[in-house]
Amino acid sequence: MKKIGVLFGMENTFPGALVERINSMEIEGIRAEFVEIGGIEMAKRSSYAVIVDRISHDIPFYRSYLKNAALTGTEVINNPFWWSADDKFFNYALAEKLGVAVPRTVLLPHKNYPPDTNQRSMRNLQYPLDWDAVFEYVKFPAFLKPHDGGGWRDVYHVHNRDEFFHAYDQTRDLCMMLQAEVKFQEYFRCYVVGQEDVRIMTYDPRREHAHRYVLDPPEYPKALLARVKKDALKLCRALGYDLNTVEFAVENGVPYAIDFMNPAPDADRHAVGEESFEWIVDHVAKLAIKKAKLAGEPMKDLRWSSFLGAEPAKKALAKKSAAKKVPAKKVAAKKAVTKGNQ
């Protein structure tokens, strides 16, 4: 029997619905349940073929458990090694390299020294920082936010230098980034499952959290929705996420990717609405079953260069070089033989 485990925290509606949906499909040899773990023996094989991870970003014990499980053959949604390597600033840089529109963003030094460091630890840091250059590039209004955070924690909307420095003084030892504001006319949150299926949901971050999903959206231009879907898939494939949400703020017809590091995205029935909830449960269930059937196959070798086009270009160059090494007479002789055998 191949088991699919769901690892979760405080959320109530999605984990149970996912387990129930998988089991209701009655796939021979596959069952779903909530993960139950205690002390973890190193390198001991997990009893789960697949684990859907909804909580390890908040609990280091779970994250380490999932890495050990992946090491011994469990397929984890999402890959705990790949996800651990990410931060939002890197993801913006990756999007830029991929040709996806993102707001102008600058990474900033910590306001206060991180724990167990002091002024001597910062001897490579430019001082004083050229704030004028930062502000000239990003421009106001802007958002000051953690380079690796979520849930709108420690996010400041600043309109000028004074507001910026007032906010920056409150950021403690967090690593922050300053990002240009997108004055959006439309805003979308896209659920992406299995790097193939996309559900575009209208979303309004200006509303109260429980009412941000717009359940009665207007019609949008097909070309805009097509670009949003294409960019959402491009980002998730490059990030290696099998489950993610990608948010786009649309200004003058251009969808800017705002937030796309959500490998345990909100799936609450009461927030996303019944129709979207049904879509999410169904698609994640099918993804988990698909991965359970493939359990035991070698893990995908993840490399940034393959996503950025470096490896395909390298292979093409090698192929071209190999072709140049073949003497023209041999090529002609080969063509003659081939023609004679037809």
Q: Give helix % range.
A: 25-40%
- Please report which band the strand proportion falls in: under 5%, 5-15%, 15-25%, 25-35%, 35-45% or over 45%: 15-25%
Q: Tell me the distance between the termini.
A: 53 Å
CA radius of gyration: 24 Å
Mean pLDDT across all amino acids: 88
- Note the total helix count: 12
Outline the secondary-structure elements.
Layout: E1 2-7, H1 13-24, E2 30-34, E3 50-53, H2 60-71, E4 75-77, H3 80-84, H4 88-98, E5 105-107, H5 131-138, E6 142-146, E7 156-158, H6 161-168, E8 176-180, E9 186-193, E10 197-202, H7 222-239, E11 243-251, E12 254-259, H8 269-272, H9 274-293, H10 304-308, H11 310-325, H12 328-340
Helix pairs in contact: 1-9, 4-7
Tell me what the structure shows.
The protein has 342 residues and is α/β, with parallel strands linked by helices. Helices cover 39% and strands 18% of the residues. The chain has a 4-stranded parallel β-sheet, with helices on both faces. A 4-stranded antiparallel β-sheet has the order 5-8-6-7, with helices on both faces. A 4-stranded antiparallel β-sheet has the order 10-9-11-12. Helix 1 packs across helix 9 and helix 4 crosses helix 7. It is globular.
Write a short abstract of this structure.
The protein has 342 residues and is an alpha/beta fold. The chain has twelve helices and twelve strands.
Descriptive tags:
single chain, 342 residues, alpha/beta, four-stranded antiparallel β-sheet, 39% helix, globular, disordered C terminus
